[in-house]
User: Fold these one by one.
Assistant:
Number 1:
Amino acid sequence: MRPTLNVLSDKLIEEILDEAKRILAEVGMEIRGTNLRQRLIDHGLKTDKDGKRILFPADVVEAAIASAPKSFTLYDRDGEPHAEIGGYNVHYVPGSSGLKIQDHRTGETRLSNSTDFIEYARLCDGMEHIAYLATAFSTNKDIESQVSDAWRLYMCLTTSKKPVVTGAFTEHGVERMTHMLQLFRKDRAELIEKPYSIFTITATGNFRYGEDSCQNLLDCVEAGIPVEIVPVTLMGLIAPVTLVGALVFHCVDVLTGLTMAQIVRPGAPVLFGGAPATFHMKAASSPMAAIEAQHLNVAYVAIAKSLDLPTQAYMALSDGKFLDAQAGGETFSSALLAALAGVNSVSGPGMLDFVLTFSLPKLVFDNEVCGQCLHFVRNLEPIGDLPTRKLVDDLMRDNHLITSEHTLENWPAELYLTDPVIDRTNRETWEEQGSMSLTDRACTEVEERLSRYAQIQTDSAIDKEMQRLIKDGLESQETLPELPEAVTPEPRRKAGRRGRAGRRRAT
């Protein structure tokens, strides 16, 4: 048996979905992208009396839900299966909307550059419990903004073979990025057959899809790239302050995106996602780690699971400014909720400050949090301990079970051992080792992991073509930023920390 959450009754789920479908049919959605809007009209969808909004009849929405895949496989750079997105499989992935980096060497929070991003990608490549990468933060400080989305993707593709969650910054950004991804497949057909990336499509809110989101969705779906539909549902500001009302608004946004995707290409992989937040009535901020936002996350995931759809959510993050008690509490609680809810793609590790700031030490800490959460939601079943008479006899004979055959056989899988970023020593040992704080331990772990990174090789022709695609989009900048070379790691000792028992990724 797998631990799960139960946050909505079947009756309430049905009522929420019925109401969302009614809104879609009667109020509809403003589709500002000319090309996508025309595709919908050509499909037979009508507009409201003012001709402004596209109406989505319930039968069209239901047909789209039926045609959307229940799950799909993400493949790595080499075309090997990497992650199954669906069911109760849980995969943690860094957040993907940062503007700044919290420099772990100086403590400064500043605009990020390409060197910061390369260090992030190298660190993330070795994270045991971070399933795949994301283009986690912008590097506009040293690259022109109109190609910065492709530049981030380039740095991921040449640093790690893991799949990547990304997105385009402009209305026409997907085409360039798709060409880059296709360089690692024989042709477009193989890219569709073996998807290498998930692209984020942001629902604009206020019952509209903007020009960028519309064109990005159209381009991704036609290229066979899976998309996650991510409304930023702000409870109390542009969505009802109550949970059920917010869920209706959220479902309207996601079901619109899903329906449009299926109209463009039936069978297109779509994740039922979101990045909800509450509106803080005193601070006028939008906390994504608020408990109400987390409740909304797991509730819409429950609705998606009732429809048998893959899911995404912004969780395992913090609105705090540093790796402190607030960051730890918000991250662990939401990461565990995500695991219990069975969120397929959990966006958030490494993120601080309303997903505006990325922190490498927090990513290291979050890797441990995610590992523990995945360990918690493993299937629970007897493992040689029913009946227990032999264990009772072992204890009565030796006064302990440390050397029991059952213990020796099972403890490596049953007892999760953390990295030193989590302190599990007694006070005396902690003091002997330097009395290091959590931040100190996390910063040390960042540097140690970076020193162990081994650069992957990229075919020179592919590398050159990716750079050409990016350079063709430059306007005034003449060259791409220079990237630091990886340091060749020293040979590992056979009994190193990474070989300890209990270290594995669970899904």
Number 2:
Amino acid sequence: MNTQKADIEISAVKKTQYPKTGYPEFAFAGRSNVGKSSMINKLLNRKSLARVSGTPGKTITINFYNIDDTIYLVDLPGYGYAKRSREETEKWGEMMEDYLANRGPLVQTILLVDSRHKPSKDDITMAEWIRHYHDRLIVAATKTDKLKKSEIEGNLELIWDTLEMTDDDILVPFSTKDDEGKYTVWDMIEMMRAAQMDE
């Protein structure tokens, strides 16, 4: 996708702040520091449009990136941040579940997991949420460039098995160091957007 415009439209802390344009939304979920912002920057060929917070996991906002007044890429707040209080964790959970369950323009949530590690309990929970609210589970395995080539296949199999993925699900290796996964993710977004427009 050749994007002409890519701007952050709003960093929302409550649903009344969400955009009201009705543009299709494609959200990215994952633990803190899994690479959501880096992935969005890579997809948009920008270096710092999506910025990594100085206090990862502390700021609970949903960031909406307006792409050519056509779609939004949505950066969801990360989970699994050890220093987050119980109150903050509960607020995160309520915000995420409400967004996933009730956000009309949301077409698909894409789960990001670190390809170097077995998915965590939080990753499994998020995968179950995504399955509940969407037709399929789409997972991007980030930071594949940090693996040896001999490790990649085994690590992807571990992710697939741990998240109990099926033939209806999609697992995409992704690296910000090269273009691995970039065009696959865009192709999926384009196909899902086209399918929604045909409904």
Number 3:
Amino acid sequence: MVEAAAPRSYLIHNATLVTLQPLAAAAGPQARIDADDMGVVARGCLLAENGVITTAGSYAVCAERIAHARSRFGSSFADYDAGGRLVVPGFVDAHTHALFAGDRAADFEDLAAGRPPRLGMAHTIAATRRACEDELLTHGRERLDLMRRHGTTTVEIKSGYDLTRDGELRLLAVCERLGRDAGQPRVIATFCGAHAVPPEYGTADDFVAYLCRDVVEPVARQGVARFADAFCEIGFFSPDQCERFLRRCAAHGLRARLHAEELSHSGGAQLAARLRAVCADHLTFITPADIAALAHAGCIAVLCPATAAFLGLPRQAPARELMAAGVPVALATDYNPGTCPCFSLQMVIHIARRWMGLQAHEALAAVTLNAAYSLGLAGEVGSLTPGKRADVLILGVRDVREVGYWFGANLVSHAFVGTKSG
């Protein structure tokens, strides 16, 4: 059982530490990751003081600092014996749509029966518009608590289920309030304005014009969203429409992320490369030419294997081909009510290992440091490095190779969420 509250200053000892410090010392996100990059320390110690990692390594390296911390913090200092189990960085979920009202259980019934879903995104938009801000806040807190208990300590949340100016500002305001909750996952907000065409607009062109004219500037002025995102997909938004929206967002300081090639080959990956977006996400139906373009542009691939599994798509994103071409890979849940109601990065790791061919060390880096890079947070989270936030998990396994092997159960016994370093 994951603790409901955790101390800010503590020692974890007798741990198999997976620090990722060698990987963190490299310049930027890495596409090719070796087992040695994990920085594993047997019988290691990790010391956190006031929510920040102050030392991590062998007991000999940490002993003097540990003694000082015991004296400094007294009875408020906690001590955890990991019993040889893995201690890893907190998971970073770099792509979610976790703020919404209602559910789409009826759509799942249709999918399970081999029928086209009846409700679709319009159902979620209508339910979200009806919900008040406090209801959305309650939903968000419940979901973030579930995610934390399964190891997620930082989460990106996209708006995009209201699609009016005031409604999108409201969703982002809720994201900001969620991010202030002590002990819960840190929230990074993305303005996903071009998510779907709402029912009051006749065409995608008309809606994109509205977003660019009336919504982008107020969202940027609000100061909550760090990124902008668009759903480049047949039947939603074309590459040209996404480009107009994302360039307008960029002019107001919002960096581009992009849903690309999720359900079909739509041209989104080439657009992400052309815009030099921080990341291109999903990439289920990407081509070799798209992979080369992303590598040249320096984009991170944020892959969402649970989505392809839930929808029964005929293929997964080609993770190994992306990495071989030099594209760093992160993994995310894509948590949303319609196409991936999965909040557990543990399950995502399993699917990525089983159906994408990732090794345990590659998958672990993909949900920690590479995911942190995609959110601009690699200097703060993603590895057990002194000076970073003490986002730390104790897992119920003792070998890195077991990461993703066990599934269907929660292996997190402790999830600590630290505070900002510096």
